[in-house]
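Session log. Operator J.P. requested a structure for one protein chain; no other inputs attached. Running the standard single-chain path with token output.
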Amino acid sequence: MTREIELKLTIPPGHIKAITQLPILSSLSIAPPKKQKLYSIYYDTPDLLLRNQRCSLRIRRIGKQWIQTIKSGGNITAGLHQHNESEVPLNKAQPDLDHLQQTGVITLAQQRKIIRTLKPIFITQFTRDTHTLQTKDGSIIEFCLDHGKITADHLNDSIHEIELELKSGNSAQLFQLALDIAQLTDFPIRLENVNKAERGYKLFTGDRTPPTKAASIEINTKTPFLDALRKTLSSCLLQLTKNENGVLFSEDPEYLHQMRVAIRRLRSAFIIFKPLLSEQHQSITFFEHELKWLMHLLNPARNWYVFANEILPPIISSCPDVEPIKVIQKLGQKQRSRYTQQVQTNLQSKRYLAFILKLNLWIYDLHHDIKLESSISIGSFSRSYLLDQHSVITKNKEKLEKMKPAALHALRIQIKKQRYAAEFFYSLYAKQECFKCYVQLLAILQGALGSINDNYMIDQQLESILSSQKQKKLARPIGVIHGWKAYITTQMKADLKNNWKEFLTMSPFQRNGQ
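Structure written below.
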């Protein structure tokens, strides 16, 4: 099987012609363009055995010729799709199951089941305009503009996308070409993290991709420092981009929450590794600036959701006079909707796309032009960093219940950064029981301090509501909310006290002074 590497971009349906007229297609072209009508049938068993094996089987008609393609394994990060691919020509419009067996993606027993139950699941029909391009460094990229539809039963989903497939050369050129294309257009283009096969399966099953949480990062003491950095940033970027579609097309707030987590993890990663990358401070400063912009963009939408959907419902269920508080809740939901729309608009902006593409380019260049300030191993670096940061956190011996909001906020940020650092380096110390306990306690502290911070945010949100026109009559229910907040915050601090005391006796690699 060969390795397929391609970048996918989604474009608005009304701009197909504008894409075909981009000057870059003629200036980089090394062969005459082609236009084809492609008709593909995707097969699987009723229980989707192939999909569950991370495999797809497709037969495609190109002109009068049928070709079978099997794709398996691989991954998708920030629009870059990498899969194993095997193709064979067919004499007729029927799957070749011997070819499927030869790829090694299924067992003999699975093949017997497939022979008995294989059936068409969905089809794709689209027109493809193909240009073969050569970039300045000699890389060969196939540019494909696809527009058509996916059909499963009686359901349809439109296709309007660009595929940039690397035929030879440097995969970083895919991101550079996408960046060049985006800069030439006056309409939004998005990286697409779902391929046609997965879109077809979703149409067939009615399923949706769940929110993507942070994945584990596999490094060991022999992992080169820059490899560890690349794996860390790629993991964060995967979490960020995998949740985009959910924020854009779903009401589930968890997608936005996971995007915020990914942004915080990226910011923490740059803080951790930046001291050893002095020659890259200008690039890192740019990424930090864009991450700060994104966080400021996402925060209000999340904060108003928490206010209206998590903080107010317990008050409403306990208060005898609930109608005025429900009015406040509706105002909070309206604010959440307004800020969510702002997030959705900006996630489809040129600025966001450029940030993602530039970060990908930088990650791909890590092994070429980037030099380290030190030859320190990742094992020594991680241990030293975790111990130093733990020392900074535990210098504060003040009793948690007496801390002012500003001090609690600062502590929450320190705990959060230490937790992300510990998770980045987790595979180095996963066999140490004390380290596992340490990371678990960091998560508990971060969650509890986050909830306390949400309560303190209520003051700003209520002030915003109270200062709006015609809302003076809400002063009394706002007072009720303030009272509830003060009571709950006191309880939260009391509940957190023992965990904080335990943390002060620990270190990442030691417990209870041992």
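Operator note: Residues 155 and 321 are 47 Å apart (CA to CA).
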